[in-house]
Amino acid sequence: MSAGPRLLEVRKNVLKQNDLMARALRERFRAQCTFVVSLVSSPGAGKTAFLEKMLTMLQPHYRAAALVGDLATENDAIRLARSRAPVKQITTGTLCHLEAAMVERALDGWQTGQLDFLFIENVGNLVCPSSYDLGENLRLVLLSVTEGEDKPLKYPTIFNSADVAVISKADLAGAVEFDGDLLKANLEAVRPGMRYFSVSAKTGAGMDECLEFLTERMAEFAQRTPA
Amino acid sequence: MSAGPRLLEVRKNVLKQNDLMARALRERFRAQCTFVVSLVSSPGAGKTAFLEKMLTMLQPHYRAAALVGDLATENDAIRLARSRAPVKQITTGTLCHLEAAMVERALDGWQTGQLDFLFIENVGNLVCPSSYDLGENLRLVLLSVTEGEDKPLKYPTIFNSADVAVISKADLAGAVEFDGDLLKANLEAVRPGMRYFSVSAKTGAGMDECLEFLTERMAEFAQRTPA
Questions:
Q1: Sign of CA pseudo-dihedral B73, B76, B77, B79
Q2: What pLDDT is recorded for position A39?
């Protein structure tokens, strides 16, 4: 916009470099047979609560780990570590999104070749993360019922760049008079056919269906990967 | 970060240009004696609901108008127009924040000299808007109780750049077991002495105190402005 053509040109180069790095990461994950899921959402939509629950559910049967991005604090890594999965925090300072190079640096020294699942929790931001490929196999966008049914219409890019949606905090749907049909119509308008799950990390509702979806997608990925 | 020095240099120039434009806007608002309040928050924190209520409460006694930013849709302008205040939507496309030049363009043709209050609702984003001065006299950051008490610690820059905080959706505090003391401590850690209000646009709780605060600040501003 008013940022001017020079900024756009430089930004294009940054995105191109990011894409190259992301492609290298994706090849590495494929060779190691690690299924990578990234999580994007607004601040406070419940990425960490969802991920803590999911890691705990995966732990008995799969080797899963997580990287978690925030501007500041190690709070989320500390929370996720309660699942007993290996976790690393990436603090971005003032940067509003994760980039592939940060993921690559964070993996340094980790035996990712031994992982079935790697989750990457992005900075809470419903705009900027959409442009940055992190080498993931699946991008999951979370939207809490408290944020309103109009969010797919107002933030179409991130919903378009995601593979699946998770409607979180379903236990609060009644308190906020959440209209599930309206959300479904709005998702459908922006991304026809998009798969979505309603979950509550607090009560556990819907988490089994979501787990099943992720493990099925991981199994399909593993089948396509040369031994 | 990995964006590289060239991007940072170009971004600095964009910020400098924005600051110059914002300064010109601020002088214009001062000369016209219009008190300008910008609103920043995560997507879905309730900026529009708060603003609709505030505009309706101000309407009988003050001349108030609003500009509202979103990536896409005119939904918020349509909602705010129910307050009968003049409202204009700014759609930013893929840009994650408003810039002073967009405000300047949106004001084109408006008789802002006849306004006591102008509200500017930014794109829902708890990171990027913090760097862009819009010529406002007061920046108000909203945080809904559903987002969690840790947000000031995780997004310190936006809380540092704001003048006052509004804790929104107070009617949901019980349902989400919101800890007001913890939030207060976290705000205090990031921005000692920061004034904040707990409100519910739905029930109206706390809105009177917030209205009083804004009208007092407007009166102080008007006194400092040469006739």
A1: positive
A2: 98
Distances (CA, A) of A170 to A95, A142, B45, B52: 30, 12, 17, 26
Residue ranges with strand state E in B54-111 = 64-70, 87-91
Residue B149 CB-half CA count within 13 A: 14
A184 alpha carbon, distance to own chain's centre: 20
C-alpha distance from B62 to closest chain A C-alpha (Å) = 30
Query: Domains of chain A by range and CATH?
Result: 34-224 (3.40.50.300)
Of A4, A95, A144, the CB nearest to B1: A95
For residue B126, pLDDT over 90 is answered with: yes
pTM: 0.94
Pairwise CA distance, residues B175 & B219, whole Å? 38
Task: Tell me the chain A residues in contact with residue B150 when contact means C-beta distances shorter than 8 Å.
Answer: 73, 75
- Quick one: CA torsion of A161, A128, B102, B134, rounded to 10 degrees? 150
Q: How far, in Å, CA of B175 to CA of A171, rounded? A: 9
Task: Say whether pLDDT at A140 is over 50.
Answer: yes
